[in-house]
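Pipeline run #58 for the internal structure catalog. This entry was flagged by the ingest filter as a single-chain record with no existing model, so it goes straight to prediction. Upstream metadata was stripped on purpose; only the residue string is passed forward. Reviewer on rotation: M.T. Logging verbosity set to normal.
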Amino acid sequence: MSQQISVLVVDNEPGFAGLASEMLEREHDAIVATPTTSAPEALEYLEGNEHAVDCIVSDYEMAELTGLELLERVRAVNPELPFILFTGRGSEAVASEAIDAGVTQYLQKQSGREQYTLLANQITNAVAQYRAETELRESERRYERTVTTLHETTRELMRAETKDEIYESAVETAAEMRDVTAAAAYAFEPTERVLEHVASESSSTSPSTPTSPSSPSSSSSSSSSSSPGESRAVVDPAVDTPRSDDLIWEAFSEGVVREYDEQAHASVSGILRTELVTRSEVVVPLGSHGALVAGTTDSDGFAETTTEVVQILAANTEAALDRAEREQLLREHDRTLTEQNEELTRLNHINEIVREINHGVAQASTRAEVETTVCDRLADTDRYRFAWIANTDDPPEPTTWEGVDATYMDRIRDGGTQAPESKLIRQTLAAEQPCVIRDVLETDAWDQRRAEALTYGFQRVLAVPVTDGDRAFGVLLVHIGGGEDIGDAEREVLAELGETIGHAIRSIERTRAMLTDSRLELELECRDSRLLFNRLTTRIEESLTVAGVIDRNDDEFVCFVSTPSSADIRPVAEEWAALETCSVVSDGEDETLFEITGSTTPLLDVLRTYDVTVRSVTAEAGVSTLVLDVPKRVEARTLIEAITERYPETQLEARRETTSTRSARQLDTYLEEELTDKQHEALQAAFYSGFFEWPRDSTGEDLAAALDVSSPTYHYHLRAAERKLVTLALDGHSN
């Protein structure tokens, strides 16, 4: 049913006033018309029923006052009230005068019922617009009052000295807003990791409602609608919010505004835990401080502006809480010396832990023992919640952890390269120095770990590279609670620990290699068209043999390839972007030796990562056979998986355990320790290119050009390498 429209009909002819009123009511069910026969009578009616009249319909020519004079009197009282001039005097002059005077509508009296249909339509349209504008003005006034209240509250918040005062002021202001029935504030308690109820307020009254004696009542004051003898319905502050699936915790842990209707939380006893039955609640996080909750009994929920204002209030409250924290820090400035002493004590404790770790690492005989010793001792301290070590794979894989369950490690694995821990590990390896996340709750990249951080009780993460200076073995990560921040001294101590771990791992690997007479040899067959050698044989339609590969460790390689004399690689090198240069080293009757340079390939990246040596490569008709010498410390399965990931059409053909003599192993160790990278590279190039053959297949100038150095420089490095090898062979003190 439509809302009633009250119309005052003014006409000096009583019969016409009554007739017009009756016809208007017939035309529209919502119209209730009241006839009057003079302007003074109409004004007198308005005096007693100002807000009960929605529209005035007046004649123009009347005895005491004309219709326009009546309009002037009405406008002085209510400038916006719809006023329709309904007159039999239909001249352009009257119409113009009426419009200038500000009538809502002008209609000339005519015979027949149609005029009342038109008049009723004008009345309903005018009243609808009047009511809409009135509601809009009232809404704007309410909004202005709310904004004014917000400004006043903001001043109060900024003057408050304690967080409790801030929470109380915030909920009182929220409860006074339109549509808000009750409000409450929850503060995050980091030690127990729960949201504690700290303040509540309600704008509704509940006659003679006693406060539960088992819980302290809120310090709320009565709202403007309360009367003496009435007690306010307050939120029960006795129950803290648990971490499980509570709706407030859900919004707080995710850091987003949540609105819940009656259906959404029908299974719980109301977010606000009040005796009032709220139908809808909005939960706004207060940063890392807690959450502000507002509820309403309105079945339609909150108006959009109300939700916006609650969020503005929450933002002001968060700012006030931040300010209160800062001021508290300033008030604690006089305790700086004590804090510094405590930091020194903590660093001494960390140094003691590191010494214990160093002692344990020195006694370890395997890499696993080293990593377990480190993680176990760090996780056993009060400072660190847990510790773990990840390898350098992409994505990184946790290898050892202590102080945390495997579920968290599984979450890291499931996240792959997008996990925040993986990104931190890659950042640490790239920077080659410790990296810190000072607050995971305030770091956008760690939003997906917000719930885990709150559950496991860590706020900061420190990542330290595990390296011996030349090679990275992984990254050590320690998760720290909300206590003291990570200082430079602590970072330096743990960075040194990372280097100690790296040196220990390298020492263990070298010792193992020296004590092991066997080595692993893998033979692989690759049919993948992405492999450079397969593509070359397909293009030249001949077989090829790789005499040797020099990995320059700067995204470039030098490769010596021999083919039947009928084949020529140079035209292909000119076309392919993957190959930079190609030149003939020697041209025999049966075969030609080429030296090619190019950008590093995925295969070389894998071999470099796992420290694998290429023994031989032969390729024919798009199929390559690779023989690889694999260090014992490398798991063959892991290596093969890394290769097949880049070249799927690769399979293992043979796996052989070979035995090397002790003198050969000693020579390998000598070369690794005594030759510089440049000397080793010069020696490799000479060997692979036939420099030591007679007659020589290549000259020093050719090799210098291939390595992009001057000829004297190349000969200098080659002579130095030869001198060291001769010294090893002839020196009587040498083995």
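catalog note: The chain has 22 helices and 25 strands.
catalog note: The chain has five domains: 5-137, 160-202+240-327, 364-515, 518-659, 661-734.
status: ready for reviewer M.T.
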